[in-house]
Design goal:
InterPro entries: DinB/YfiT-like, Maleyloyr_isom, MDMPI_metal-binding. The chain is an alpha+beta fold and 241 residues long. The protein is built from eleven helices and six strands.
Length: 241
């Protein structure tokens, strides 16, 4: 895979180009995130990006599982009355330092994040995944383009890598799953042991959207086989709680 820190910067830039062109009416338009406007989504992205800086500074951010959604809703509600210009400036300031700061951390560093401690590269991957998913929430209701890119490989890796955790959270024994996913450019991406008894095949974009809970497995073009393939799609998640 290409450098995750460079790709995180590129994802920020792609979303920035969208946000910079929004009208006042588009900022207040309902997003695809239930109960949130486009502005609310960007408030959430700015807030969580500021938490990255706090984690790098050594703050403890781990929360009990189950509190995360309620906390996110509460803090967005408390800060949603911000002008689009100020909000865009805040998000830009929050994202500006993240890739370089994460890249500069010493090897072996572990950073506090929501449910666990993550390496700088994995935290960068979660930030890419969250910005990509929320870009979908912003652009889809507005009918704006947000093309899929090869950066999805990081997100697909994250979804596959965290399958054991996802099985555990859902109380499912699970098992090894091999994924053969078609990249936006047509290449094949492989994750896991090709000899695994369960497989998932299909578009990487669908795999990532299922993992972001923006697409149901039944509505995707993904195919699951073996004893745990369908279970994997049911629990798949691109996030750590």
């Amino acid at each position: 895979m290409t450098d995750i820190f460079d790709d995180l910067q590129a994802e920020y830039a792609q979303l920035d180009a969208v946000l910079a062109g929004l009208t006042a009416g588009q900022w207040t338009h309902p997003s695809a995130a239930a109960g949130w406007t486009v502005s609310d989504v960007v408030v959430h992205l700015a807030q969580t990006e500021e938490l990255v800086a706090a984690s790098i500074a050594g703050d403890e951010l781990t929360l009990p599982r189950g509190d995360v959604d309620a906390m996110a809703e509460a803090v967005v509600a408390a800060q949603r009355h911000v002008t689009p210009a100020d909000l865009l400036a805040r998000w830009r300031a929050a994202t500006a330092a993240t890739p370089g700061a994460l890249r500069a951390l010493p090897k072996g560093t572990r950073l506090s994040w929501v449910a666990t401690a993550l390496s700088p590269a994995t935290l960068a991957t979660t930030r890419l995944a969250e910005h990509w998913a929320h870009a979908y929430d912003i652009t889809t209701p507005l009918g704006l383009p947000y093309p899929d890119t090869a950066r999805l490989r990081h997100i697909a890796w994250l979804g596959h890598r965290t399958l054991p955790y996802a099985f555990q959270v859902e109380g499912i024994e699970g098992g090894p799953v091999h994924c053969e996913l078609t990249a936006p450019g047509g290449d094949l991406w492989h994750f896991g042991d090709p000899a695994a008894p369960s497989t998932v095949t299909g578009p990487a974009a669908d795999f990532c959207r299922v993992g972001a809970r923006r697409l149901s497995p039944a509505d995707s073009a993904l195919k699951a086989t073996g004893p745990h393939g369908a279970q994997a799609l049911a629990v798949l998640r691109n996030y750590a709680f």
